[in-house]
User: Fold these one by one.
Assistant:
Number 1:
Amino acid sequence: MQPPGGQFGAFETSQAELGSVKSRLPYHWGVQPDRVVVFAVVVVPFLGAALTPLVYRVLGERTAYYAAAVAAVCLGLVANLGLSGAHGTVSVPWIPEYGVSLAFYVDGLALLIATLASGVGVLVFTYSGGYMHGEPGQKKYYATLLAFMGSMLGVALAADLIALFVFWELTSVSSFLLIGHYQDADSSQYAARKSMLITVAGGLFMLVGFVLLHDASAGALGEATFRLAGDDSMLANAGAMVDALRAEGLFVPVLLLVGMGAATKSAQVPFHIWLPNAMEAPTPVSAFLHSATMVKAGVYLVGRFRPLLFSDPEWVLVFAVLGLVTMTVAAILAVGASDIKELLAYSTASHLGLIVAGFGLSGYVGAETGAFHILNHALFKAALFLVAGIIAHEAGTRAISELGGLREDLPMTAAVTVVAALGMAGVPPFNGFYSKELLFEGAWHVAEHQAGAGSPLWWLLPAVAVFGSVFTFLYSIRFLMLFFGEKPGELGEVGSPPLAMTLPAVVLGGLALVVGLGGVTATVGVHLEPLESFVASVANSAAVGGTEHEAISYHLPTEVTPYVLMSAVTIAVGAVAYPFFDRIRDGVRTVRSVDPLRPNWYYDNGTGALDRSSVVDVVQTGLLRTYAAALALATAGLALGAYAAAGVAVPDLALAGLETALIVVLLVAAIGAVAVTAAPSHISGVLTLSIVGFMVAIFYILASAPDLALTQLVIETLVLVIFLLVLDKLPAFYGGPSRLRAGRDAIVAGAVGLTVTVTVLVSTAGTPNDVIAQYFVANGGVPEEHPAFFLDAGGGGNIVNVILVDFRAFDTLGEISVIAMAALSVITLIAMRDRGETQ
Amino acid sequence: MSMDREPTVIARTVTRLVVPMILVTAIALLFQGHNLPGGGFIAGVLTVVAFALVYIIFGLDYLQTELFERVSVSVPYDPETGIVKEFGSIFALGLAVAAGSGIVAMAFGRPFLTQGILFVEPLPIYEYLEVASALVFDLGVYAVVVGGLLTITAVVGEE
């Protein structure tokens, strides 16, 4: 591993100089975060989600504002953490046997993602109040969205790999539910399945990576741990961790596995295909999950692991290349889009590529790029999604070709779009310009450094960055032009959106504008201090090897540098090419339609082939008997296999000395069991079966267990009665089964019987310590000397019942809860099954 | 039971006689459970047997229309208007009683579900009466079993 920060010594110094200008921080790093506050951040949204159904009964559609209030509480708590300068870990044990804890780590990166999740959450919930008016399934919608917010906050703060994984997959699950919000539409189902399949599969790769890291930590830290951040964690011992991984040859596999998780979640090429489909979700969901937060989980992961796994050239090669390829390919695809949400989806993938590329680059500037662009992208892209929602809501269409000249009808929205779209294009002085400039700077430095070391191929990095940015410029301007030019004749009345919808967009646009203007004022020496130090704290989280700055500095270029020229070239080429936009778009569409170039083609063919394959027909027959057989055989196999693996000896049967009465009873039961198989009809089958049951009851009486016998008799009677109730509705007889099927069933039944017999023999042969039994006997009855009221003995003559209601009353409480739950599920599954979402 | 096969007069008469006896037996089992075979669970199942018998012989609507004097509705076992609602309240109440009896112990500073025994003496004829707080818990068990199993029987039977 390279000595951290060493390769661009001169560059780091210049950054440090810039940083040293500002020693006026609101942050006092190192304050231990308040445990209650940190846990509340994650717990409050889940509580809010659980209460949503109740709240919905009272508030109806205004539940949106309740959800916004919950998000505001979270934002307040996150802000409290940020302003108090909290930095550190809080944890509670979760699965101590495996060293898993529910640990949360607060630092700049965590706070940024948490701020986005809760802050954009407030705006999106407010916006939903207008957008979701009259839509179906709102209860589910708000509950899921709140649960998603909690999961995302969990991802941002998790300091334990297992906790991180759990929250990570929870975001995938809630995304699945939200994409499939219109659950009757085929396209929604397809989109939801696709996103679930890709993101969850990626998450599993990541889990394997985590387990490998856990293994390596045993060597590096002396004790295996899942702790990612904080004291005695992997990040705190990054050097030792990398050495341990390299020693086992696991470094590159772990890098790729973790990268796989990030790439699928953040829609990097070729896994970007789920993101455009995900636009089936209601627009607020797209703005929240699929631009501002969930897709940021992947880049968050890259940023979080950067201090741990950064290495030259593996890390740079993997992430800088992945990011730049995604940035370019997705930008080109965005140009070919025909729907405004599709355009924004590809654009999101493209900008996530930019962030990944930033984190992929070496030096502090890499961390800075990623950190700053996460913020900038969330501001302008969430604003643009809200704009897209307003357009779709008011104009009634999302087709780019049908839209134009919206400026007159939607003046406020147009103003927001100008700020956001130009920020997305990277035009100075809007916010996206500064972070893109940092990317150019980083790419240039890496190329210069590597070319100096003899590999000129690295010059492709800055070249690709510029090439991709040209397309970004093109589609951004195309989006902006929806508001200018001629209004197409076929576009009907365009209404004006409610305040609940415009206000969040204006807030986001306003924030983006402030960030942009901060760069202008910084040029003349007036800095936007809180922002600069906050971004620096984020970058510090992703910085390698202790390089830290108090603040970043961003401003308009004041001198001509290679990267300023790169920006100038981007904008100039973009402006020259824009008049030919339609021809470029048609070209993109032609290339896009070639099947082997489309990842979707592989996805559809792959899943389609699985769907058609005979595996499904064999496994999913839809017949209860198949599933029952699989379940029974699996149980029997697992139990018997476990006995064999543990080397359990089957005790001998002690048949001698059995009472004659017992033998008779058991023989009758056995004959009854055989007779069931030969019963000519259902009724006689059930009656014969009850012979077995009643014989077992008699067995209990002979074995001096009157309570068991009573229970057995009553249950047997009830089952018989219920059978008779049901049998009346069944056909008298189905006809004889085929020999093959009878044979197969005999094998299943035999296996189950064998398992039960062995289990009973093995478990009764064990001679447990009977201290507990003696305790029950000694304390179950009424003591000879006792006061009028006593607590220390059972006081009953029937020890079975005393155990049930006194000694082990907690168990009984659990059992009756199960009965109540079974009754509830019967009600919901059978009696209420016709009542779907429509209420 | 379907309308095409009316139960015989014998079956109907016997049921009328037997059902009250089963119910009395069930209650006896519930109360003697602490000292003799019996208890909430057995008593509950026995009670359900009595009701199931009524279902089979007199039809599924009988309880609803005769006992609860409710007009037969189009969906007899709708969980919000039908008799299942009462069954639902029975097992909910039972669960509350069982858990509540445990919480009472906590109010006295004892662990959850601690049970006590009170001997009331002297009494005429019986000399003494043993009152176990566990009986309250057992009543809860009884109610859950009755409510839960009746719900299942009613809903499944309606199918």
Number 2:
Amino acid sequence: MSAPERDELTSAARAILDAGRDLDGPGDLERARVRRLLLAKIAAGGTALAASSAAASGPVPIGAATTTTAAATGTATTSSVLAAPVVKALVALTLVGGGVGGGFAWKARRDARPAAPAVVATNEPARVPAPPTLAPAPLPVVAPRAPTPVHHVHVAAPVRDEVPANRLAEETALLATANAELRGGDARHALALLDDYERRYPSGVLREEVLATRVIARCQVSVGAGPAPDATARRAAAAFLARHAASPLAPRVRSSCER
Amino acid sequence: MLVGRSKAPTYEQPQGLPEIYARHADFVWRNLRRLGVHESSIDDAVQDVFLVVHRRLGDFEARAQVTTWLFGIVLRVAQTYRRSATRRRARLTDAPASDFEHVPTTTTEGPAELFERREASQLLHRLLDELDDDKRAMLVCIELEQMTVPEAAESLGLNLNTAYGRLRAARAAFNDAVTRAQRQMAAGREAS
């Protein structure tokens, strides 16, 4: 079968698609915010993502795939290259009936549009993400969050929106470093880092994850000194499992301490 | 039947999640939006895509481009979110569809440029909303991400003939949507 021709699209349709090609990507702030949230979900699961977080936030290497390179740099250049095609696309929609006397119809649409905050507020309930779920493998399955009313009901800890983004990033980085030490076999250093976390963030968002990491580190330290975790470490593990039975970190605590 | 290649090229194996996120976060983000994930859910949806990537990275085979593989994941996550949003709207019967969509800003963008981007983004999303899921995904692959038809077929799990047929249908449907929009806007001008 022969390839479809590009001119299967009308000129107006083509103009709109061409103008839309560089739209919809995140801004720098959005990209960084989601990366932090992703880090928070993965860090305590023992993933090395955070250790390489600098790479994740860095510039896209030259030679990356064309589409992604364009995407990664698109937001920085959009303002300088987009205006003409966007106007062209919008004008394409107004060229009806052989004239442009009506000008930009989208201006009328803008005037008729309800105030933005009110519409946002009524259409989509306020965004209140749950505290981070830091899951070890297997990671959470792909599923949308629970309906917002239920979401609100289950949010017991301070919501993330109340936590300054830079503080969450710092918490996440510190916890990730502790986990890296733990994976590297230096449980004592991990414990020292966790002590530091608790001094700096007594009401931290990642308390549950820090507690789990601490329990695992204690078990690892005591295993280094004997054939099995000592009674103190086992009690700490039992206390964690009793209090956080549904935690995604429970299996990891169990496997580390119940020997 | 999935598309097979007589001489399958090999592509670079991604090193890990940080690298994939750095290179492809924008790709994932914009295509979730284009496939109908509402702005209010985009953070969660992007994270879900990368959690799937994290989980399945070991299964990735370098016979496909990362973007081809990613698009398949994006498509499934977007479908899940859209279904959920539909159910939620059905419960919130008084909530109209939003007429205002957030467009991420850049630090160098002025108000006029931001406004133009918002207008263009809204326009594109409205038109894409008029397509069914299959046509929408095909149009996004080919016309917005500029994949080849074989790449799009692989992303969408189609054989090549089906992919070509769907592309034609998608373009025709998009033309129709644009024509309807033009008529509506002309009618609006006459009414005013």
